[in-house]
Design brief:
This protein is α+β, with helices and mostly antiparallel strands. It is elongated. The N and C termini lie far apart (79 Å).
Length: 563
């Protein structure tokens, strides 16, 4: 009996050691709050004992006039690394300034010297709550700012969400305050006393960091004292976004049900063509097509593995996302990209519309947006990763416009912009054909309209919408095709090459593959070949199979019947 008891105790001791924070190099409890300071010792903490000690159940760092540090010095948590996580602690500071380092690096040949992302705080009135890059690009976001850091290594302010002086009134001087850091993907949020103080999204693929050490700072300079208590961390499980076999980004293209007859809304044919071109591009991306025929929604595991989801389908009240908003919202919050093409940009007002404003920045709203066929002439293109390698182009399509965008275009970048002609509003007012607001904007104010747009979400992830794509033959236009391929690559989290995504050579035979409807007996293949020839040699060709005389093949639908 005694032997069994001793064995049980040994086994229990082993289990406790394995599960104790920092006791094992592979320790990574996920989605559970774990206390990483026991209030009594500096176990799993490594700092210069000249400056760091335990006092009153706190980690205390202190300098005095007699005991100074020549440079910033840190106490480092040796219990593991930080990647995706939430951290909560209480701090009190008297004099000077300090900070909390995360996903950080140890400077070679310099003991207790750290560089990386830092959640700042101070005894003063300016910097508590900012995101500072210690030895790492400087200030990344001031208080009250949302920033995006680009490949030029510089932060760009995309939103001012708070007043720095107002935030300061919520912070107590020489008293205890709570600090919370959330790092998810490459978006970092700081909060003090439950008040959001800064948000950074790091798109600097050369310098951003996905993991690193956690450390607490004593700043060089005047005498100071800083204390930390109730230090808790929750490791967040990242979404399985990268294929374990190929290491490539995953693009999931959802092809809508058959619609409109041959040559228009050819969702399966369009998605299959785009997927093939992505897989042949040489970029580290894998594209997979999932048909929504028979309302076959993809498995949760399939969606979870995607870095970006492309929807090319009918929309409105029958949009596939309407009944899956919660699932798509979770994916969006995990950084999954979302691309909506043509009718796929239209959803009802309310929960679906609000979700689209968050995910992609805009959507088609009935009695506000319109859906005419017209020739859009994109003479200039916005400088953006999605337009890399894309030349100005001109096409006839069902270019929806007067989209419902986020207020003041907050966080939304227009990509394709033109002023629609007056004849595009020649129809009577109706849910999709016209309304006083669009007539005033286009006919009276001559306001250019945006037919494609992009959004970088502050919490991580990218969205893209494009209202073109009614006519299947427009996929033969290299510029339009390259734009959409760029958008899929960009929303997957990859960098778009400077020359754009390789868009291949598309033939008439390519355009005739994977249609839901049979090819009509009167299909004029020569007419489409002539169209492709024109697109290959002319800045703006005959449009979509229409000859110079303006006659249309009998099989090519002209009117939009969808919405």
């Amino acid at each position: 009996m005694r032997l069994r008891t001793e064995a049980a105790v040994s086994l229990m001791t082993f289990i406790i050691l394995i599960l104790s924070p920092g006791s094992h190099p592979l320790y990574s409890q996920q989605d559970t709050w774990v206390t990483i300071f026991d209030g009594k010792t500096l176990d799993n903490w490594d700092g210069d004992p000249t400056f760091w000690r335990v006092e009153d159940e706190t980690i205390t760092g202190q300098t005095t006039p007699e005991k100074v540090t020549p440079g910033n010095t840190f106490i480092i948590w040796r219990g593991g690394e930080t990647a995706d996580f939430e951290l909560k602690l209480d701090y009190k500071i008297i004099g000077g300034n300090s900070g909390i380092q995360y996903r950080s690096f140890e400077v070679p040949n310099s003991k207790w010297v750290i560089g990386g992302y830092q959640a700042d705080f101070e005894a003063g009135d300016t910097y508590s709550g900012i995101n500072y890059g210690e030895r790492f690009r400087g200030i990344l976001a001031l208080r009250g700012e949302k920033t995006v850091i680009g490949d030029d290594h510089k932060p760009k302010v995309v939103e001012k969400f708070g007043d720095t002086k107002e935030i300061q009134t919520k912070i107590k001087k020489e008293d205890w305050n709570s600090y919370q850091i959330t790092a998810k993907g490459f978006t970092f949020e700081h909060r003090i006393n439950d008040v959001l103080t800064s948000v950074v999204t790091d798109e600097d693929t050369e310098q951003r960091r996905d993991k690193g050490v956690l450390a607490l700072q004593i700043h060089a300079g005047p005498a100071m004292k800083v204390q930390f208590r109730n230090i808790r961390i929750k490791h967040l499980k990242p979404a399985p976004k990268v294929s374990s076999t190929s290491g490539k980004k995953k693009a999931l293209l959802l092809a809508g049900i058959p619609s409109h007859g041959f040559g228009a809304h050819d969702h399966l044919a369009g998605c299959t063509l785009l997927a093939r071109l992505l897989n042949d591009s040489g970029l580290p991306i894998e594209a997979e097509v999932h048909s929504l025929k028979n309302l076959d929604w993809p498995l949760t595991e399939t969606l979870a593995a995607a870095n970006t989801v492309v929807i090319y389908s009918d929309g409105g009240s029958g949009h596939p996302f309407n009944t899956h908003l919660d699932e798509m919202a979770r994916l969006s919050q995990q950084g999954t990209g979302i691309v909506c093409l043509h009718y796929g940009v239209e959803v009802p007002q309310g929960p679906s519309g609000d979700a689209f404003l968050e995910w992609t920045g805009g959507y088609f709203e009935k009695n506000w947006s319109v859906n005419p066929h017209w020739v859009a002439d994109y003479k200039t293109l916005t400088e953006h990763p999605t337009t890399r390698g894309v030349k100005p182009f001109k096409t006839d399509d069902e270019w929806y416009y007067h989209m419902r965008f986020r207020e003041n275009m907050d966080g939304v970048t227009p990509i394709l912009t033109d002023l629609p002609p007056a004849q595009s509003l020649s129809r009577a007012d109706g849910p999709h054909s016209g309304n006083p607001a669009v007539r005033k904007a286009v006919l009276e104010k001559k306001e250019p309209q945006h037919m494609a747009w992009a959004r970088q979400r502050p919490r991580g992830g990218r969205g893209f919408g494009c209202s073109g794509g009614h006519l299947h033959w427009n996929w033969g236009n290299n510029e339009f095709r390259k734009l959409i391929l760029n958008a899929i690559v960009w929303t997957s989290g990859l960098d778009v090459p400077l020359e754009g995504t390789p868009s291949g050579t598309v033939t008439v035979e390519d355009l005739l593959q994977n249609h839901d409807e049979p090819i009509p007996t009167d299909f004029n293949q020569a007419r489409i070949q002539a169209l492709l020839n024109e697109w290959n040699r002319s800045p703006w060709p005959a449009i979509n199979g229409r000859s110079a005389a303006g006659d249309w093949p009998v099989w090519l639908p002209v009117a939009c019947l969808c919405s």
